[in-house]
Amino acid sequence: KAREELLKFTTWLDTHAAADLKDALDELFGYGRPFTLFLKTAAGGHLEADGRATGARAVLRLRDVAGTKQDLVRILDQHRRLTREIRVSRALMNTLPIAVWMKDDDGHLKWVNQAYVSAVDAATSDEVYDRQLELLESRQRSTLETSLKGARAFSKRLPLLIGGERKAHDVFAVETDEVIAAAAIDVADLETAKGELDRQLMALDRTLDRVATPVAMFGRDGRLTFHNEAYQELWRLDPAWLAQSPSDGEILDRLKELSQLPAMADYRKWKVQVLSCYQSSLELEDWWQLPDGRMLHVVAAQRPDGGVTYIYDDVSERLQLERQYNALIQVQRETLDSLKEGVAVFATNGRLQLFNTAFLSIWRVNRVRMEQGPHIDEVIDGLKVLFENDDVWQSMKEVVTSITYQREAYTGHMERADGSYIDFAATPLPDGGTLITFADVTASKSYERALIERNEALEAADRLKSQFIGHVSYELRTPLTNIIGFNELLLSPYGGALTDKQREYLGDISSSSRQLLSIIDDILDLANIDAGGLELAHEPVRIKPMLDDLAGVAAERASGEGILLDVAVADDVDSFIADESRIRQVLDKILSNAIGFSHPGGEVRISCWRETGLIAFSIADNGVGIPEEEQERVFERFVSHSQGSHHRGAGLGLSIVKSLVELHHGSMTLVSEPDKGTTVTVRFPIDGRHLGATHDADAEA
Question: Which of 331, 422, 448, 609 makes a 20 to 30 Å CA pair with 596?
Fold first, then answer.
């Protein structure tokens, strides 16, 4: 057991001694190398360890050291310690960014650190020693050596050439035991920073001199070191006197003499309180009511250098604005309370910020509770008593609490449990808040319901009227067709001989019957259009043949009235997709009106041309024209105006024309001037691609 304890070297030997003994034993066991060591124990004593190989065995002898050997051991320990310290010190200096070097009494470089090697552009320290590469110039070295002879210490800022650039360095040197140790610290960045600081301070002074707020700076001795122009203008002090750097107390005394300080019962006590900022790091803040009525907000703050900076902010205008603002707020509140609509404004944190009396009345909530600024959730809980739709309240809450930049307004209406109707609108405000308004529309809702019921009754009556007219017109068409047929039979040779008078009567019957048949057809077409049952064909319409045919039919009537009929078709016009029969019907009725309202000897012109994606037809006359106040009504049903002409009708022509044009997704314009004529222009899509969709949409309507 004692042998095992002995072999645990780390328990009874110094750490370094235990490591040395272990290494020596490894050499002895491995290679048979003998050793003699002096070991330091953990208790501070010393032992001599002797290791030898004897045959196949290794022998370790430990002897206590005494006498001369003990002195030798102490010297060896001190040597090891000094060696470690030198090694550590040099390792540390090699890591520093400061050039360090040592010279012997002959002036030769004996040791340099890595920063020195880099500074003289050498590869290694050996190169520095071999070539004796100096960092300082000869004159600088002479100055350093001369200074060391007298004071044995040197400290000076010198410009050193390093890396091709001359930079300022603080050079320190000491001489001990005829060995010179020196170091050079790069202070170029420090000088740059100091220069920059000086420039910033100058810029700050210039800036403060331009600001409108009075500023004064006093040194730690209490004397004025800086003031801007606003400070001088505030107190109206003599610039020459301020240039003498008076003390803070002297300035206060001068202002007291000039009656520019606030009125106070004890000036001395007040002055001591003001000057106490030099002894306290706390910021002094005070309000000075000057004799001329101005109000100053005075802030005195101690600077790191012990001086004090005063800022005098004239808040007279701001206080006046605050009073005006408070007055406006009061006016706003009175205005809101006079509104019939309930108003509630929520802040960005979702809490009620503002409300009016109408809001309390509409929702029957307690004013005291609302004045506490409850959150939107609490407000909704109180309002749910009269309206429990969670979806509406949730949507309204999202407008109030949403954090997105693009909040959208939310509007709607509520039918409450008490039978009342409330219209509401939640509107985001520019400051991030939300305005919610509630309007009690119970009375108007009752009127609206009555109007809706009346309108539905009128619509039903109109439908019955249309159905009745359509039914009657259809029933009239059959006997009327028979009358026309029998009338034509009588006029034919098969009907026998007729007198001239009889033939005239039969001609009048035929003309009147066909006119009546045309009116009935128009009524049936309008009824079909209203019912959405009018089918449109989808076919190519050749324009020139159609216009020639229409002009040929109308030419007989026009020539009887001495009216000139002219047709002008552009060269690039060919065909378009539409219902040809309905297009003929449209143009025929417009042409019939143009001839009917023309003076004898007048002119009617039919024109056709292409526009972008459209075909345009224009029929113009120089007849009686239409007054401006009547032009809007000519498209209404059963509205007829003879305008002094012999043309009469049921007032359905232009009405059915407009309906047919709109079914084709076209447009129609009328330009007229009394005694100068009328121009009607209709435009249709060339490709007719909307015809099917038009019919379906109208049918659904």
Answer: 609
Number of alpha carbons in the 13 Å side-chain half-sphere of residue 641: 15
Residue 370 neighbours by CB under 8 Å, 6+ apart: 352, 355, 359, 360, 379
**692 pLDDT more than 80:** no
- Whole-structure pTM over 0.70, yes or no? no
- The yes-or-no verdict on residue 152 having pLDDT over 60 is yes
- Structure tokens of 500? 């001239």
Q: What is the pLDDT of residues 390-447, one digit of tens each?
A: 999 999 998 888 876 667 889 999 998 888 999 999 999 888 889 999 999 888 888 8
State the Cα–Cα distance between residues 324 and 322, nearest whole angstrom.
Answer: 5
Which residue do the tokens 């309930």 mark? 342
Is the predicted pLDDT of residue 111 greater than 70, yes or no?
yes
Element (H, E) at 673: strand 667-673
User: Which residues are registered as beta bridge partners of 428?
Assistant: 434
Strands, DSSP E only, in 119-164? 153-162
Residue 353 main-chain phi, psi, to 5 deg: -110, -30
Cα(559)–Cα(161) distance, integer angstroms: 117
Number of Cβ within a 10 Å radius of residue 336: 18
Nearest one of 116, 117, 174 to 145, comparing CA atoms: 174
Class at the top of the CATH hierarchy for domain 534-700: alpha beta
Give tens-digit pLDDT for 159-204.
888 877 888 888 998 888 778 889 998 887 777 777 776 777 677 7
**What pLDDT, in 10s, does the model give residues 56-68?**
788 888 888 766 6
Element (H, E) at 121: none
Q: What is the 3-state secondary structure (H, E, C) of 556-580?
A: HHHHHCCCEEEEEECCCCCEEEECH
pLDDT at 633: 77
CATH 3.30.420.40 fits 321-440, yes or no: no
How do residues 507-550 score in pLDDT, each as one tens digit? 778 777 776 777 777 777 777 777 666 788 889 999 999 999 99
What kind of fold does domain 96-186 have according to CATH? Beta-Lactamase (3.30.450)
Residue ranges in 354-413 assigned as alpha helix (H):
357-363, 367-371, 376-383, 390-401
Over the Cα atoms of the chain, what is R_g?
A: 57
Task: List, for residues 569-580, the tens digit of each pLDDT value.
Answer: 999 999 999 999
Q: pLDDT at position 250, please? A: 92
Q: Which long-range contacts (CB under 8 A, 24 or more apart) does 249-258 make?
A: 249/222, 249/275, 251/224
Q: How far is CA 522 from CA 475, 650, 651, 656, 701, in A?
A: 14, 10, 10, 7, 21
Long-range contacts of 192-195 (CB under 8 A, 24+ apart): none
Helix (H, G, I), strand (E, B) or coil at 488: helix
Name residues whose C-beta falls within 8 Å of residue 544's C-beta, 6 or more positions apart in sequence. 569, 573
650-667 b/e (C-beta count within 10 Å ≥ 16 → b): bbbbbbbbbbbbebbbbe
CATH level 3 topology of 217-314: Beta-Lactamase (3.30.450)
| 685 beta partners | 614
* Dist. CA 352–CA 375, nearest whole Å: 6
653: left (phi over 0), alpha (psi -120 to 50) or beta: alpha
**pLDDT score for 699:** 35
Do you know the residue count of the chain? Answer: 701
Measured distance between the N- and C-terminal CA atoms of the chain, rounded to whole angstroms: 114
pLDDT at 46 (0 to 100):
80
The DSSP element (H or E) to which 609 belongs, if any, is strand 603-611
Angle subtended at Cα 492 by Cα 490 and Cα 495, rounded to the nearest 5 degrees: 45
| Mean pLDDT of all residues belonging to the chain | 83
